[in-house]
Amino acid sequence: MQYSGKAMLLSTSYFLRPLLQVASRTLMMPHPLRAFDRRLVIVFFGAILFSTFGRAEQISTIPPARDSAYINPWTFNLTQYMWFPGVNGDFSAERASRSVDVSFIDISDESRRFPLGFLGRLEAHYNRLGFYLDGNYMNLQLKPRLDRLSNGLDSEMGLMDYGIAYRILGPSAAEILSSMGKMKTNWLEVYAGGRTLWLDNSIKQAGPLSDQRNFSASKSFTSPVIGGRFMVSFTPKWFVLVDGNIGGFGAQNVTLTASILGAVGYRTTLFNLPMSVEVGYKALHYNVDKGGSLETRATLNGPFIGLSGYW
């Protein structure tokens, strides 16, 4: 038995209705969620609905099996990756501040616990148009230095990138998926969107008599971002990916934010699902809240490894 796209939407909406009711109650709550958390709820449920509609469109437009040349215009890919960055910058919380210049190995040595990081990227493509959602979470906890009076630092960072992309050169994502691992593919696309950065800095200031004072501040910032990325394939299996963007432009007291990524990847399959493994280097810079209680100027950079699935 086959179901139409409308039937799938009706059945899916039946199951999503309780989730949407929970989301609506959550968004109406004044506490304890911060504004940043509410935006994450909106983005999360928006991604679910978009994927659902895309799948329904796919089912409703599938032609008869005899048309073997048909290529579905909708494609999706999900990337999970681990990033091992060092940190260089100045962190502030109210009247206290601390400068940091450490590698990832130094962070692991100086941290009160192993630095936590959760990173992922979801993309949806329709022909040459694309939509992306990229999330990062980092938790940095540095102990005070013992050889002199100094400050300890706890810094949590949540970063969410989202926007629209357009492929101006090369085949569409659907065409690449249909021939993945069989031919070399090169492409170039540009994108524009937003970056929401949430920071929570806590600085413990040591005194001459072993007394200690705690200063903390947290705030979220949203600013526009523009960028571009390209892929060059050396063989049907091996490729290079470069992605760079810049934003801020003074919006919400974000002086500058920028990111660049370079990776070498290998295409393969896992359980009959097209996959790719990427290894590369990523750098992220942000300069926010100049003159404010959370003034922070920092650069995170280091190697990463990622795994992507395509469908």
Integer count of domains = 2
Provide the CATH top-level class of the largest domain. Mainly Beta
Question: Strand fraction band?
Answer: over 45%
Q: Mean of residue pLDDT?
A: 79
Name the helix and strand elements from N-terminus to C-terminus, one letter apiece. HHEEEHEEEHEEEEEE
Shape: elongated
Helix content: 10-25%
Strand arrangement across the biggest beta sheet: 1-4-5-6-7-8-9-10-11-12
What is the makeup of the main sheet? 10 strands, antiparallel, barrel
The helix/strand class is alpha+beta
Number of DSSP helical runs: 4
Write down how many β-strands occur, each being a DSSP E stretch of 2 or more residues. Answer: 12
Q: What's the architecture of the largest domain, going by CATH?
A: Beta Barrel
What is the CATH T-level topology of the largest domain?
Answer: Lipocalin
Regions with little confidence, pLDDT below 50 for 5+ residues = 1-16, 22-37, 48-67
What's the N-to-C terminus distance? 23 Å
- Over the alpha carbons, how many angstroms does the gyration radius reach? 22 Å
What can you tell me about this protein's structure?
The chain has 311 residues and is α+β, with helices and mostly antiparallel strands. It has two domains: 1-68; 71-310, Lipocalin (Beta Barrel), CATH 2.40.128. Helix content is 20%, strand content 55%. The protein has helices at 5-28, 35-60, 104-110, 173-178, and strands at 74-83, 86-93, 96-102, 116-126, 129-142, 151-169, 187-206, 212-233, 238-248, 254-270, 273-288, 296-310. Strands 1-4-5-6-7-8-9-10-11-12 form a ten-stranded antiparallel beta barrel. Strand 5 and strand 6 (151-169) form a beta hairpin. Mean pLDDT is 79; it is low at 1-16, 22-37 and 48-67.
